[in-house]
Write a structure and sequence with these properties.
single chain, 27 strands, transmembrane, transmembrane helix, membrane, AsmA-like C-terminal domain-containing protein
Length: about 550
């Protein structure tokens, strides 16, 4: 029983001990404590205390203040050391960026990244602004690039990258950038080093970008440059990530002038070029043909768009580019091969059945070429004039005294049609294929024409509405298809004197007229002259678009 009572009293004793500890903490300053065993075997803690005084509390405050003061002093010293280290490192970086060693290292790293010889002039740091008066890169002989020159280079380097010894920032400005292409090089080849540039900026600007073929005169000028390709523009270059991995460079171009050998000057309103590690991913230029007139009528404007891509190691001579446009003259694209025979303005706004001019072409123009080689369709013909072929005299003779008002069959004009055009750019092979020109209720022509040097050849088929012809002035060799007379001719001769084989039919009419005997009209079934054809009644009023 005694043991049970002592066990029951133990929790109460423990509670007393805890209360005593609490009281001792709240009443005074502890001097000594010890564990005491009571006679009944229980244990207690005996604590000796003394009463707290004002001196004790004041002493504790002094110790805490001294401790805080030491901590603050240590913290200030640490901050000063860190700031001093940062400032020292920053000043060291600034100083090192203005040394010859830094300029030489930049040249070496640029040479390694671009795969060419680099010359850097006037490189220095002004605060956080990196400047260089000139950077010139000369590329090896197996590159399509001859050189790149960057004048007036300046860029703000970020403080963090400067502290880390790197050249990184938001924008790098170049007052003038000149890219010289290597003449006669036919492959889109650039050095592949796998090295990164020693500087990195989010965007690059060049108020004047010039791209042309290297020659003795430098810098390039639009008036003096006689190479096969020349571009001047204001360029804004930005970087982007393609799929989060490879870096792409997007060139936004404005205020551009593009001169392609053998073509008219092209004034571009906007342009965009996307470059990646494999070459030109996408190119888009748009603008108008520069006709040298400040104010053009809307009908005189010749808008165009050039699109395409060019991957590394591709051959320049392949047709990688596409030109679409409106209101173009045939001679602007293929030269004067057919100018003595036919003049065409082609390409209309693509609405309903009308179509734009669309051709693929190659760049650059080779030294043996006068203009780019091309292949494509004319789109909808706006106006086509034909002249100087003897067959037009035949058409005039066949329609004499049929109409009260004479129509210009001696040099007909067509307002509809299309054809396929091909040119090798040398004037040795220029073709107009699948020609289909017509003027409603007046005349139609189909066939092909070919120009080789100064010689012209081809086959044309003219269709004359029967009600437009004098039924008694139809020579042999002319057939009838429905309500149309069909006159096939073979074209030959030279640019200066084109001709065809219609002279025999024309002479037949002249001889008949001189003898007073005119040949009868042929029946619709053939030309055997078995019976005269009944003349087809003409409409009450004939309207020919563009002539009346």
């Amino acid at each position: 029983m005694k043991n049970s009572d002592s066990d029951a009293e133990f929790p109460q004793g423990a509670g007393n001990i805890m209360r005593q500890l609490h009281d001792s903490d709240s009443q005074g300053v502890e001097r000594r404590r010890e564990v005491v065993v009571r006679p009944d075997g229980s244990k207690v803690i005996r604590v000796e205390k003394r009463r707290r005084s004002y001196g004790d509390e004041h002493q504790n405050d002094k110790k805490a203040a001294l401790k805080n003061k030491r901590f603050l002093i240590g913290l200030c010293i640490l901050i000063l050391l860190v700031v001093g280290g940062l400032v020292g490192t920053y000043m060291y970086r600034l100083t090192s960026f203005n040394t010859v060693e830094f300029s030489n290292r930049m040249q070496e790293e640029l040479s390694a990244a671009w795969g060419g010889d680099v010359e850097v002039s006037g490189m220095a740091m002004d605060g956080r602004s990196l400047k260089a008066s000139r950077i010139r890169i000369t590329f090896p002989e197996d590159s399509c690039l001859s050189f790149i020159t960057l004048n007036g280079v300046s860029g703000e380097v970020s403080a963090t990258s400067l502290f880390l010894g790197r050249v990184k920032g938001e924008s790098l400005n170049v007052s003038q950038a000149t890219i010289g292409l290597r003449p006669g090089y036919t492959k889109f080849s650039l050095p592949r080093t796998g090295k990164e540039l020693p500087f990195a900026f989010q965007r690059y600007t060049a108020p004047r970008l010039e791209v042309g073929y290297a020659h003795e005169r430098e810098p390039f000028t639009l008036e003096k440059n006689e190479g096969p390709f020349y571009l001047t523009a204001e360029a804004y270059i930005r970087t982007s990530r393609a799929g989060g991995a490879s870096t792409e460079y997007v060139l936004d171009l404005s205020q551009q002038k593009l001169k392609i050998k053998g073509w008219p000057l092209l004034a571009m309103d906007a342009g965009s070029v996307i470059l990646d590690g494999f070459g030109i991913k996408q190119l888009t230029f748009s603008g108008f043909v520069d006709k040298g007139v400040m104010f053009n009528k809307p009908t005189d404007l010749s808008p165009f768009m050039i699109t395409g891509s060019m991957r590394l190691d591709n051959d320049f001579r392949h047709r990688h580019w596409t030109l679409t446009g409106r209101n173009f003259d045939l001679s602007q694209l293929v030269g004067e091969c057919f100018s003595s025979l036919i003049k065409v303005r082609m390409g209309e706004q693509p609405v309903e059945e009308k179509r734009e001019l669309s051709v693929t072409f190659s760049l650059p123009v080779g030294p043996e070429q006068k203009r780019p080689s091309l292949q494509g369709t004319s789109g909808s013909v706006i106006k086509a004039s034909m002249m100087r072929l003897p067959v037009f005299q035949l058409l005039k003779a066949m329609t004499e005294r049929r109409m009260e008002t004479g129509l210009p069959y001696s040099s007909p004009v067509f307002s509809s049609g299309s054809f396929v055009l091909e040119s090798d750019g040398t004037d040795q092979s220029v073709s107009l294929k699948d020609i289909s020109l017509f003027e409603q209720s007046f005349l139609g022509v189909t066939g092909n024409l070919h120009c080789s040097g100064s010689n012209i050849s081809g086959e044309l088929v003219f269709k004359l509405p029967s009600y437009m012809a004098n039924g008694r002035r139809i020579p042999k060799g002319v057939t009838q298809d429905g309500h149309d007379f069909v006159i096939p001719v073979k074209v030959s001769g030279t640019l200066a004197s084109p001709t065809d084989n219609s002279g025999g039919m024309l002479q037949e009419l002249k001889s008949a007229a001189e003898s007073g005997i005119l040949p009868p009209a042929y029946p619709s079934g053939g030309t055997d002259g078995s019976s005269p054809a009944s003349p087809v009644p003409s409409p009450g009023r004939i309207t020919v678009d563009g002539f009346m």
